Amino acid sequence: MRVGYPRALLYYHCFPFWKGFLEHFGHQVCVSGQTTKKLLESGIEKTVGEACLPVKIFFGHALALKDSVDAVFLPRLVSLEQKTYICPKFMGLPSMIRASLPELPPLIEVEVDARKDGLRGSNGLWRAACDAAVQLGDGSARQTKAAFHAGQSMQKEYEQMLLAGLDPNQAIASLDCRDSWDNRERDRQRSSGRRNGGKAEGRGTGESGLSNNMPKPNILLLGHPYNVHDGGFNLGLKTRLSGMHFRVTTMESVPARNALYEADKLSKAIFWSLGRRMVGTAMHLFAAEQVAGVMHLAAFGCGPDSMIGEVVEREARRLSIPFISLVLDEHTGEAGFLTRVEAFGEMLTRRGRL
Q: What is the CATH number of domain 2-174?
C-alpha cells in the first residue's frame, strides 16, 4: 500500500518513527514535495481564514498527495511529553482535514497522547502504533512490536544525525541509504585519520588547527521545526544566512535532556511540548556563550510562539545578546523580510569586530 505523509508541521520531528514503522510492514511511504507558492495557494483556498500559515501549508501538502497514494497518514497529536500539550489546532487537524478535503483517500488517523506516562507509556506511541496497524490491516501483536522497534531505531538514528550537525532534510534523505549512520560515521573518521596520518584533523600536519578565515558568527534560529526547516515557509532563510557567512544553530543541535534541564529552572513550567524545548535550548546556549544573536521565527497568530519569543527575548536582553522576532504569514513580502534579516546580520558582523 502507498501511504502518504504530508511534509509539514511535525514531519521534521517525528516522521522517521512512522517511516520505519510503516516500511517494516512493507508499505511504501510517499512524502509530498517541497512547499511552493502554488501548493500554499491550494491550501489557503481550502482552509478557514483564522488558521495559521503552517496549518494552511499542511492542507496544501495533503492535497498534493490526493492522486498518488492509497491512504494518508494523519496523527492526532495531543502531547509529546508528560504534563504538556501541543497546539489545539494539531489536536483538531484530522477533523479539519476530513471536513474540508473529502476528496482525499482514506485517512489513517491515530492519537498520540503522552500526558500521563510519556511517549513510551501505554497511551503514547505504542497505543498509536497498535491503532495504525489495525487500521492498515497489518499483522499480529508480535509483528506490530517488531515494527514499533524498527520505528524507534530509525528515529534514534535520525536524532543522532541531527546532534552530529546534519540538517533535518539531509538526515531524512540519509535514512533511505542502506548503511547505518554509525557505519558512515566510522568510515568518515577512519578516512579523516588516514588523511592526517592518524592525528587529529588540522594538527601535526604543518597546518594550523584554525580556519584561515575569521570565525563566522553563530546565530540561533529559534522556532518550531516546521517554521525553521521549511524553506517555503521562511523564504529560504537558512540558505540565505549561510550565504551571508553565518553559522546557524537550531533547536535540534542541543540534546533534549540539556534543553529540558534548563527549561525546568524557570519559575513557572511551560506546558507546550516544543515550547519547553525551544526555551531550554536558548538558555543552554546562552549559558555556554555559544551564540552571537537570536532570530525567533514565528507564525502570525500563534499564541505559544508569541509567549516563547517574549521569554527568550527578556533573557537575551538581560545578557545583552541581540534578538529579532520574524513573524510570517501568507501576506509577508519577501523584500521587507530580507531587509530585516540583512540589517540584523550586518549589525552582528559589526558588533563582532568591536
A: 3.40.50.11890
